[in-house]
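Throughout this chapter, every protein is written as a compact record of paired, labelled lines. An example of such a record is reproduced below:
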Amino acid sequence: MECPNCHEKLPGKNCPHCETHIPLESIYCLNCGARLVESESEDSVGQDDEFDFENRVLCPDGACTGIIINGKCTECGKRENELKQG
C-alpha cells in the first residue's frame, strides 16, 4: 500500500474477512468495513475511573452538568462552598 500524496510505501496487512490490503493500524477495513480491533469487554470498562458513579456529587448549580471532585465542579469550575452560598 502506498500514500496517495507522497507515494511512500506504508506498512499494511490483509483484512481477515475480505483479504484487501489495508494500513497496519486500521481499526476497520477500508473495503468491507469489518471491525479489526477487539473492543474492551464490558467487565473491564470503568474499572480505572477516577470517581465512583454511584456516590458522585452533582454540581448544585441547576444549570451545570458537572460533578464535584475535590470540592470543585468539573464543568463550571466553581468551588462547592461558593455554590451553596448562592
